Amino acid sequence: MSEVVADFVVIGAGPAGMAAACEARSHGLSVVLLDEQAAIGGQIYRGVETAPSDRLEVLGKDYAVGRDLTSAFCSSGARHVGGATVWNVSTDGTVDYVTNGSSGKAVGKYVLIASGAMERPFPIRGWTLPGVMGAGAAQILLKGAGALPSGPVVLAGCGPLLYLLAWQYLRAGASIRALVDTTDRSAHLHAARYVTGALLGWRDLAKGIKLLAALRRHRVPVYSGCTDLAVEGESRVEGLSFRHGGKLVQVPASLLLLHQGVVPNTQISWSTGSAHRWNAEQLCWQPVTDVWGRLGETSLYVAGDSRAIVGAQASAVQGRLAALAIAARLGAVTDLDRRAAPLQRDFRRHTSIRPFLDSLYRPRDENRIPQDGGVLVCRCEEVTAAQIRRYVELGCQGPNQTKAFGRCGMGPCQGRFCGLTVTELIAGTRGVPPDEVGYYRIRPPIKPVTLGELTR
Amino acid sequence: MTTEALFSIPHTAVVKTVTIIIDGKSLTVPDGISVAAALLAGGVRDFRSTVVGKAPRAPYCMMGVCFECLIEIDGVPARQSCLVPVRDGMRIRRQDGAADLVTANLGDVA
Ligand SMILES: Cc1cc2nc3c(=O)[nH]c(=O)nc-3n(C[C@H](O)[C@H](O)[C@H](O)COP(=O)(O)OP(=O)(O)OC[C@H]3O[C@@H](n4cnc5c(N)ncnc54)[C@H](O)[C@@H]3O)c2cc1C
Ligand code: FES
Fold first, then answer.
1. What is the ipTM score, two decimals?
2. CB–CB of A174/A150 below 8 Å?
3. pTM of the entire structure?
4. Is Oxidoreductase there in the keyword field (chain B) (predicted)?
5. Between 3.40.640.10, 3.10.20.440, 2.60.40.200, 3.40.50.300, what CATH number should domain B17-96 receive?
């Protein structure tokens, strides 16, 4: 077992973690950064350092620009431990991880959790069939391996990442059989309230318009305002059926990519016993922190999309702000407020479009809280929506108790892929807000560790 | 088991290859990619079957959160194949059920 001690330990090599490490180094702090991926970059800049030029071209400028941050990080003097899966974080700053079959410990005066986001689950009938994946997952295959769909692909759902992937696929010459858009038309009206904020983020808006124009130019069939999605097939996906303009439509598919936004990956913050609250705009849990990202009175801070979805640029700024606050606590920065002010302005600018996006791409209730009782909610233990509703009738009050009723949330993913659905399903059935229902109690190890790894 | 692959990796994206063995068959794949990516591009559609209903499953998230890509790698069961890079000579076996090792690995999750 190896042990390192540092002023600042960072978990996650995405924009938040890399920017925080650079900021901390510029104030002379010693920094160790852990990430379970072998290379730095996080989700948005995955593989950016090694991507060949044609892949950079396909993925676009917003991807290639990640090299600025990765190279700043590489020359910052921070120590990077790749392939390091963090399975325990203690509130005193001790971080346990495994790498290459052996275990390690990093002890920080302060720790930043920058574990990013994950795609929101999309629980519909048949979503567990082989051939159904997240659109973000398919983008990981493109960024990490240069892999493209072999045949025509069907994309379904809503949100910027779905359209971005469609655009990247078109640039790479892949063929899209259909884009089945679930954006609620009435959402346009709701979102209109936030237009002033959105205009401040006009660059993002312009990007969105460009993506949709590209889809039209390539004559990709776009079905908008779709409902009643169901995946067809027995042992693998054969098609997608949905309702469009009052008609039932079926499209054949051997590869179906679903997406309805990203949500904070809160597994680490929950496991530390920290308080979380339900974010009603983003429909997800987020850790309760102070303005700098600190969790209660602990040595732990959170920044980036694992704190609430803010996007890559704002994540990086938030990482810097947390690092500044920590540097100030350690006495390395004396004029915190003066240094933080411009960063806080940047943060507001980068997040001004969020309320608009959250409102426009709010995933439909039916795609988060399955009405169809046969839909598998807990993929690991194969628990259906009907079963969970039945548990509530029998007196089950919250996600933790579903475990006792039917092992829901007790499989290897530890509730990562059913937790949000179970919270909302129980809240809806009981007729109370999600905050009252709560979440699973998450305990370390938050990633599988074997006895062999612990003793090496 | 292996059929027409859902994903393909253009030759231009491949600098160096390695050979892995999946259920006894050799597969030549680009170096540096994840086991899950290699298998998806190699025509493997079902990675495992579930503990309860014996239903076929394959990777869903590719980033370590869904645990659908669990597979035996070099004798170690239930590895997250989307997080493990391929290595020359790696031996991979698909898993049926496999409840025992998953719980053994995780300890107390309740
Ligand atoms: C699949 C996916 C694809 C995306 N693609 C794009 C895109 O193309 N463009 C865009 O604008 N936005 C994209 N996003 C949104 C994007 O994630 C963020 O806006 C941005 O990357 C957030 O930065 P971050 O630093 O907060 O986290 P991330 O970039 O997500 O980085 C978090 C890092 O933490 C690591 N980590 C998590 N848990 C552990 C653990 N237990 N142990 C060790 N390491 C751990 C992860 O491996 C990851 O590298 C994507 C999101 C997802 C989920
Ligand atoms: S594909 Fe989800 S954990 Fe590997």
1. 0.94
2. no
3. 0.95
4. yes
5. 3.10.20.440
